[in-house]
Amino acid sequence: MKKTWLLAVxxxxxxxxxxxxxxxxxxxxxxSDSSEPPAPLTLDTEVAYDSSANTLSATIKMTxxxxxxxxxxxxTSQRYQLIIKQGDKIVFDYGSEFMFTESIIEEKWxxxxxxxxxxxxxxxxxxxxxxxxxxVGLAQVDGAPEIAVTDETTFTVERxxxxxxxxxxxxxxxxxxxxxxxxRDVQIDVNDTMIQVSGFTDEVEFEWSVSDGHNLYAQxxxxxTGGGFSFxxxxxxxxxxxxxxxxxxxxxxxxxxxxxxx
Length: 262
Prior knowledge:
This protein is mainly beta. The protein has helices at residues 2-33, 94-97, and strands spanning 42-50, 55-63, 70-74, 80-86, 89-93, 105-109, 114-122, 129-137, 140-141, 149-157, 173-174, 178-180, 183-191, 194-201, 205-211, 216-223, 228-234, 246-251, 257-260.
């Protein structure tokens, strides 16, 4: 009888200890199932100011830093906001200078995928001094924290506002309007290292590149407003008179269309 009573007490103690062990295992089990949310897209900005033409060339790189593909949403066709300031004074506001469609853009970005946007911005004549360029990414990565991703760089204007820029004696090369594929009345004007492109299309946005058929000289993306588009291309050096260049424009998910530059 005593042995039976002792065995029952030992069994009860073992059940209590086992129950406590299960309770303590719960927190570690929860931690093992947790996962980190994806990171937002990153920004990297490079700028160069041409005082003779009063233009700012900006290259904006947006990258998916995650090791997996992510879903990216833009609430309008504007991918980023860019503001140029001298001290606290705003001298250029990208979002106010251009118009953007209100359509929501949804994209799938692969791991480590990077998109490059080239802008050539025509500015009013600037006073001498240092200027800051502030860029804010407008992408929202599904599942990532809703934080503002920003980048900032600077450039310096060395001439004073009273000085007149040197006159460009080179003759601009204007081509006849070209139409092909999704693009109509494409006008391509070459002026030394600057190529100005304008035309019409029913596409919302497209990517473009300039090459000689083998070597790539510039690339970027353009957004369409009211059926029309206009963008500038800045080359490192002026093309030779006998050099054949081509402009290729590709709608998102569409076919490549090639135009002769010169």
